[in-house]
Design a protein that fits this description.
single chain; 207 residues; alpha+beta; Mannose-Binding Protein A, Chain A; eight-stranded mixed beta sheet; 8 strands; 17% strand
């Protein structure tokens, strides 16, 4: 990939910091929820006993509506992340070398992507093909020609078919794996590429 195709680098967190916005919204909503609930309870104590039953029914309905509002605030994945098969993926808009890409993912509580299924591989390959050269969380930095993911697991034989023809070839100390076109390629770890972070999706009520 030429320098013209690379996007300029961002700060230490790039575009990842916006994933915290929903937490602030949730906090504000819960504060509002608590205040409203307190106001409702105060009104109940002011109501005569013969009207208590109907007032309780009203409160129950309001509680149901408030709970539904809280549930709608829950997002399985942060803003700017993509959900797929129970996981969240961040596709970077800037470029970094392999080591800095690993660090960028760790800063968000994620990993440089580790591929666990053929469905996941096809999904990631398609998006990466449209973006350009993209790092994945695999290297043979520890032992030449022995590929491991960043979580310590080895590359399974069933996934070897995803290497591009004649790859990996270790041409010029190429120890890090990237998405390249229709398959995988080994590249120099100091090259600046896009990257993909992955972490489990959050559990939301009624999902």
């Amino acid at each position: 990939m030429t320098e013209e195709m690379k996007e300029p680098q961002l700060g230490p967190l790039g575009c990842l910091g916006r994933g915290h916005t929903p937490l602030v919204l949730k906090l504000l909503f819960f504060i509002f929820f608590s205040g409203l609930l307190l106001a409702i309870l105060i009104q109940v104590f002011k109501v005569p006993s013969d009207q208590g039953q109907s007032k309780q029914e009203e409160i129950y309905q309001e509680m149901i509506q408030l709970k539904a509002g809280v549930d709608r605030l829950c997002r399985p994945c942060p803003w700017d992340w993509t959900s797929f098969l129970g996981n969240c993926y961040f596709f970077s808009k800037s470029t970094r070398n392999w080591t800095d890409s690993v660090i960028a993912c760790k800063e968000t509580g994620a990993q440089l992507v580790v591929i666990k299924s053929h469905e996941e591989q096809n999904f990631l390959q398609l998006i990466s093909k449209n973006k350009g050269h993209t790092w994945m969380g695999m290297s043979d930095l520890n032992t030449e020609a022995t590929w491991h993911w960043v979580d310590g697991s080895p590359l399974l034989p069933a996934f070897m078919k995803y290497w591009n023809p004649q790859e990996p070839n270790n041409l010029g100390e190429e120890d890090c794996a990237e998405f390249d076109g229709n398959g995988w390629n080994d590249d120099n770890c100091d090259v600046n590429n896009f990257w993909i972070c992955k972490k489990p999706a959050a559990s939301c009520p009624n999902q």
